[in-house]
Design goal:
The chain is α/β, with parallel strands linked by helices and 235 residues long. It starts with a strand and ends with a helix.
């Protein structure tokens, strides 16, 4: 869960710790003064903002740095007649209240839902954005999102909820998603224009008095070299 980067700076040893335990713990570490920066795959909740009142105005460009766009993709077998799904329907499917494709206008077959790990960022975003706080009880958890996508390739009645950067296997495709408007496919253009409904921003948050080194890292992440790194992993 932790990477340590060791270096020497001005003749003194320096270790930078990068912790990977989720948005909630990252924000709490920022509040507790245990971290210079917290990267979050969602905006802080109202409760978190209240708990971190001493952090000041987190929406200030001095403290909030948007570094990438990601989101959820809904993957089905290429032979599935479904072409789109609404956010409300996806909620019912993930909750287990819709169990058959026929309820969505598809074939008479059970829906088997697959997704990422229970404590992963994709599940956290799914429950926040799609489930409105309800548990995604019908989603079978996999350690890696690519594993969930590969189940769909082997199982025609499966549906996988993965991230936009997840490489989907041959024989599968994504569904267009609607949230009350026209169904939108998660193409690069639709993501960049933020027309696709299931999007989230990756942001870095810093305390008002972060060190020069912490601020330098945040500025590097939104600069040319940092954004090249972002694009290299498909975000």
């Amino acid at each position: 869960d932790r990477t340590e980067v060791a270096a020497v700076r001005d003749g003194e040893p320096l270790i930078v710790e990068i912790d990977r335990r989720g948005s909630a713990l990252g924000f709490q570490a920022l509040v507790n003064g245990e971290a210079e920066l917290a990267m979050m795959a969602r905006a802080p909740s109202a409760a978190e903002r209240d708990a971190g009142w001493q952090l000041g105005d987190l929406s200030s460009p001095e403290q909030e740095f948007s570094i990438a766009l990601d989101g959820l993709a809904v993957v089905v077998d290429a032979r599935n007649p479904m072409r789109s799904i609404s956010v409300a329907q996806l909620r019912e499917v993930a909750a287990g209240r819709i169990r058959n494709w026929a309820q969505l206008g598809g074939a008479d077959a059970p829906i088997h839902v697959h997704g990422g790990p229970v404590r992963g960022g994709s599940r956290e975003f799914l429950e926040q954005r799609v489930m409105a706080g309800q548990p995604a009880a019908a989603v079978t958890a996999h350690l890696r999102l690519w594993q969930a996508a590969h189940v769909v390739a082997d199982e025609p009645n499966a549906l996988a909820i993965v991230e936009l950067t997840t490489r989907i296997p041959p024989g599968t495709r994504t569904l267009a998603v609607t949230d009350g408007g026209v169904p939108v496919q998660p193409t690069r253009l639709n993501v960049a224009s933020e027309d696709y409904p299931l999007l989230r921003r990756y942001r870095l948050y810093g305390a008002p008095m972060m060190s020069a080194l912490g601020r330098s890292l945040a500025l590097y992440a939104i600069g040319h070299e940092g954004q090249r790194a972002v694009e290299s992993i498909g975000l």
